[in-house]
């Protein structure tokens, strides 16, 4: 199970908690973390079968920027 990795504009623990609450509603998500210290505010989502597009859509729906972080 490879983590899905995204660049975001989530800039606080409070904002991340809002995102996490929505993402954890999906039983297909096992874990998600964010690195608020990183310039890209990297969001990592561990899921067995959730698509990149689905995560981006959910985070964007909450008013945050979210785009797959490519190598």
Provide structural commentary.
The protein has helices at 13-23, 52-61, and strands at 4-8, 29-35, 42-47, 66-68. With 71 residues, it is an alpha+beta fold. It has a single domain (4-68), classed as Alpha-Beta Plaits, CATH 3.30.70. A hairpin with a 6-residue loop joins strand 2 and strand 3. The radius of gyration is 11 Å and the shape is globular. The model has no long low-confidence stretch (mean pLDDT 94).
Helix-strand topology string: EHEEHE
CATH topology label: Alpha-Beta Plaits
Number of domains: 1
Structural class: alpha+beta
Q: Kindly report the average pLDDT value.
A: 94
CATH architecture: 2-Layer Sandwich
The helix count comes to 2
User: How does the overall form come out from the CA principal axes?
Assistant: globular
Helix content: 25-40%
């Amino acid at each position: 199970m490879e983590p899905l990795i995204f660049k975001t504009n989530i800039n606080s623990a409070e904002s991340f908690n809002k995102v996490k609450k929505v993402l954890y509603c999906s039983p297909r998500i096992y874990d998600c973390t964010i690195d608020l210290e990183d310039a890209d505010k990297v969001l990592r989502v561990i899921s067995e079968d959730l698509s990149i597009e689905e995560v981006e859509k959910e985070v964007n729906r909450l008013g945050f920027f979210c785009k797959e972080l490519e190598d």
